[in-house]
Design brief:
The complex is a heterodimer of chains A (about 120) and B (about 110). Chain A is an all-beta fold. Chain A is built from no helices and 11 strands. In chain A, strands 2, 4, 5, 6, 9, 10 and 11 form a 7-stranded mixed beta sheet that branches. A 4-stranded antiparallel beta sheet of chain A has the order 1-3-8-7, with no helix packed on it. Chain B has about 110 residues and is mainly beta. Chain B is built from no helices and 11 strands. In chain B, strands 2, 4, 5, 9, 10 and 11 form a 6-stranded mixed beta sheet that branches. In chain B, strands 1-3-8-7-6 form a 5-stranded antiparallel beta sheet, with no helix packed on it. Classes of the chains: A mainly beta (about 120), B mainly beta (about 110).
Chain lengths: ~120, ~110
């Protein structure tokens, strides 16, 4: 299984809503990532979890809250978002740091298209 | 400061010809480079990578060349096919989990 799955595919939410994005992988990868991508821009790293611990937070506003319940799952909890947060949110996974070979090869999910009204 | 640069926002080639996508980087600490392909409304798909200890890596129709002294890499697609039409992102890593992406080049392969 070389797939990263993300749910939901599309999400529309108001600025007062609380919602969560979910990501799952069964490749035995130990690093998982959240990226945000706006139209015609490259993916921007938000968070990295390595061995289920938050290792990188790219100064993301607290209205985005990541969670890694186990090595296969990654969530992104959303609360009080702004319209400018509308974007494609991508999850990725990789073997993780410290391992030989192509450990930085990240596999991406299809993304969640988020619209904040 | 953009550490990974793809200076051509778009490229158009004829089916069967070679496509050459270029990427420059500024950070000499980068030691691993990747190319991703992305269709609209989908996540990026890994294509090919190269470590800084190599200057060439080949996988089928895709070849990546790395020139460390010039801090330049290129992706060659031969022969180009209409299904290759997508946005191609160059990405680089300096030994951490963090990938730095270029802005992408939109490739159009005309039948």
């Amino acid at each position: 299984d070389t797939e990263v799955t993300q749910t939901p595919k599309h999400l529309v939410m108001g600025m007062t809503n609380k919602k969560s994005l979910k990501c799952e992988q069964h490749m035995g990868h130990r690093a998982m990532y959240w990226y945000k991508q706006k139209a015609k821009k490259p993916p921007e790293l938000m968070f990295v979890y390595s061995y289920e611990k938050l290792s990188i937070n790219e100064s993301v506003p607290s209205r985005f809250s990541p969670e890694c319940p186990n090595s296969s799952l990654l969530n992104l909890h959303l609360h009080a978002l702004q319209p400018e947060d509308s974007a494609l949110y991508l999850c990725a996974s990789s073997q993780g740091p410290g391992l030989a070979g192509d450990y930085n090869e990240q596999f991406f999910g299809p993304g969640t298209r988020l619209t904040v009204l | 400061d953009q550490q990974v640069k793809q200076n051509s926002p778009s490229l158009s080639v004829q089916e069967g010809r070679i496509s050459i996508l270029n990427c420059d980087y500024t950070n000499s600490m980068f030691d691993y480079f990747l190319w991703y392909k992305k269709y609209p409304a989908e996540g990026p798909t890994f294509l090919i990578s190269i470590s800084s200890i190599k200057d060439k890596n080949e996988d089928g129709r895709f070849t990546v060349f790395l020139n460390k002294s010039a801090k330049h890499l290129s992706l060659h697609i031969v022969p180009s096919q209409p299904g290759d039409s997508a946005v191609y992102f160059c990405a680089a890593s300096g030994g951490s989990e963090k990938l730095v992406f270029g802005k992408g080049t939109k490739l159009t392969v005309n039948p």
